[in-house]
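Exercise: predict the fold of this chain.
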Amino acid sequence: MTENHKKLIKTSLYKNHVKLGAKMINYSGFCMPLQYTSSLIEHMSVRNTAGIFDVSHMGKFILKGKYAMDLIQYLTTNDLSKIKIGQAQYSCLINDNGGIIDDLVIYKISENKFLLIVNAANIEKNKQWIISHIKKNILYDNIEFIDFSQEYSLLAIQGPLSLYYIQKLTNISLHKIPFYHFEIGDFSGIKQVLISCTGYTGSKGVEIYVPNKYVEKIWNDILEIKEYKIIPCGIASRNSLRIEMGYRLYGQDLSEEISPIEAGLSWIVQFEKKEFLAKKKLQIQKKEGKYKKFISFIVEKKGKIPRKNYPLIDENEIIIGNVTSGIFSPVLKKGIGLGYLYNNKKEKKFVYILIRGKKVPITMTKLPFIKKKI
């Protein structure tokens, strides 16, 4: 362990990762496994069979109380009233100007209790933002806010065969959990485990929320299933898997300077619900169209891979945008990327990417890059 790693937050599985030979890196202030074997092997395992990720670095909040739902409705853009107990919803926390404070998943545990899963880098920022609004309104005085990010671990088991492989470890019928739903039951002999289907890879799978003291047992039980081979996977393959699906990553594709309208996430902005932060500003932006445009593209030229911050240019080599995420897709065998054009009003017939000083044509495409395997 390097001196720098000593200063990072470690998940409860840190020693397990090191023992398995993982390359450990600083990821949002956490010491996380980048890869165990190779990112390509791990990526294709999730696409073809199954892999397991330790994603315990994610933030985990509980909001409960009579007006908990009202507060969440005000601070986020999606409409929480549309989901029932046992369902989850993708949404974003919004700032006063319409920028994205964070994207998150909200679980409805009961009528007055909600679980919020937020990005690791934004835990403290989100916490302070939510608490500040609890203090602003007397109606919210009785809302209980609990940050148990460091008390609970989170595992993601992903891949087309993942549910079949781990079914014997639980009394819950995993195949019957619909996408963006969850159930609570036994897993690996542990009671009251929350199991959800809200993955970030585009392949079938579940996420398991469990107190830290139980996570090593579950991790080992999954890796030691004799009939099947589930391999541990790191941050690198998780990143390439999410890009193939076009899933945004906060800090790269999303920020407080980018609105959900600009980010191509208009579907999580529900204008029909009553007042929420920056509603009017987002309505004006949506109507007038004066904003950045999120794009997804393929680089057809062999060997050319888009990377973060590479410029996007027009036929006259004028910079008109930038790449926010890019990889070589192990499935498509081509470079793929996400990014923004700076002016949504200007329709550009031809867009190029500047790679090491050379103008390379790109082909705009709809997401996902590959067919979903949910």
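Check your answer against the key: The longest helix spans residues 123-136.
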